Amino acid sequence: AGLPWSFEVIDDPEVNAFAAPGGKIFVTRGILPFLGSEAELTGVLGHEIGHVTARHSARQITRQQLTNVGLAAGSMLSSDVAKAAGGIQAGLGVLFLSYSRGDESQADELGFRYMRRQHFDVREMPKVFKALSRVEQLSGGGKVPTWQSSHPDPDARAASAEARVAALPTDSLRGAVVNRDAYLRAIDGLVFGPNPRQGYFEQNVFLHPELKFRIDFPPGWQTENRAEAVVAGSPNQDATMELSVGGQEPPDAQLQQWSQRPGMKIGSSQRVTVNGNAASTAEFQAQDEQGKTFAGRVMFLNHGGATYRLLGYTMGNRSAGYAGVFNS
User: Fold this and answer.
1) Are 318 and 294 in contact (CB under 8 A)?
2) Distance between CA 57 and CA 54 in Å, rounded?
3) CA dist 285 → 51, 119, 127 (Å)
4) Structural element, H or E, at residue 274
5) In whole angstroms, what is the distance from residue 269 CA to residue 273 CA?
6) Nearest-angstrom CA–CA distance, 178 and 239
């Protein structure tokens, strides 16, 4: 009860909900359209609260050791990532947790109890599992909702929820809150699926209609449009490219600031023009706290009143093989 609980919606189209140790509960924009009432949403939140109060998330994270080239280099190359490196590391751990069946059952039971305590209609909880099962069927056997893929046997869990409801006294649910109409009004107009106004991919080409730019990533690279950056990873998973907003200062000033990071060695900078946009670019080498060396190219480019940062990097001994890719 003494935890600083917070409940937040992440602007992400994926169907997901997860909990971080310490009382931070997250649901994605993507899961909200698949829930039909406030009571169903409460069932999802109660389940995630159960993972925190039973210390499932904390216990699992202590078992994890995450190694990620992009995160290691990002902490070194980006001040924003460096400030939040610990939180990002923990967040990655939460996203990839795989709870035991016993943990899931306990979280379901705790969520059921929390719903009852707040007088929400627990008969709505089985609908959540059935809805997510339908999402999997609609995906045609492809990517399943994250919340479901890490929470096994939705049909069996729906049956367990129905059994809990059946065990209650018949008059105990009189006046229980569903709040369907208010919930549907609250999510009316919500963007369903990826929001193209935040940018989208056509194969390896990323287009942003509101910021009015496009960037061609190398063919065959895995790409993702994240809130903080557009990123691409090489087929061999040994190189990364990233496009993010650097700030309002001109390219020269931002390159100068960036070059002063600890462990950074930067080559001769060049002023260039890219499709009429002023830019400054340089090759670099950087070393992290473990002594690993990264190398690549950075460019700060002014467009539409903002300065963007384009970054390409790999392990130092592989930089020659990627120099042409980063330059282009």
Assistant:
1) no
2) 8
3) 42, 59, 54
4) strand 270-274
5) 13
6) 49
- Strands 24-28 and 17-20, by their bridges, are antiparallel
Largest CA distance in the chain: 78
The pTM score is: 0.62
Contacts of 2 (CB under 8 A, 6+ apart): none
Is the sign of the CA dihedral 45, 49, 52, 54 positive or negative? negative
C-beta neighbour count of 68 within 10 angstroms: 12
Distance CA 61, CA 18 (A): 13
Dihedral Cα 194, 196, 197, 200, nearest 10 deg: 100
Q: How far apart are CA 121 and CA 112, in angstroms?
A: 10
Counting residues of the chain whose pLDDT is more than 90, the rounded percentage is: 45
Tens digit of each residue's pLDDT (9 = 90 or more) over 112-151: 999 999 999 999 999 988 887 777 666 544 444 444 444 5
- Which amino acid type is present at position 269? S
Going from the C-alpha of 31 to that of each of 118, 148, 299, the distances in angstroms are 22, 11, 37
Q: What is residue 261's predicted lDDT score, i.e. its pLDDT?
A: 85
Strand ranges (E), 70-126: none
**Residue 247: strand, helix, or coil:** strand
Over 50: is that where the pLDDT of 95 sits?
no
Helix-, strand-, coil-residue percentages of the chain, each rounded to 5: 40, 25, 35
**Structure letter (DSSP) for residue 42:** H
> For residue 13, with 0-12 CB atoms within 10 Å meaning exposed, 13-18 middle and 19 or more buried, which class applies?
middle
Residue 96 has pLDDT above 50, yes or no: no
